[in-house]
Amino acid sequence: MSDRLIERLNELQGLQDGWLNGRGLAPTEDAIEVAFPLAVALKDDGPSLFPTELGGLKFEGAGFEIDISSCGLSRISLDEEEASE
Fold this sequence. Notes:
The chain is of the alpha+beta class. It is built from three helices and four strands. 34% of the residues lie in helices and 22% in strands.
């Protein structure tokens, strides 16, 4: 369980619309709902978690990214070269 990621998710849950220089939508409940079990499952020394401009969330780790859209759809991208290092 990643306490660091859960704490970060709680921080991001408090963002308001306009968080990015007057733009940027706050993460939606759907995005947060999808991100929570990932934050629980990932290791503490694992990925970072960022908001996206359109109300979604993004996990970025060594060799992978998980994009969660504002409607809760997710996409996993793997960089096999980076993951094997």
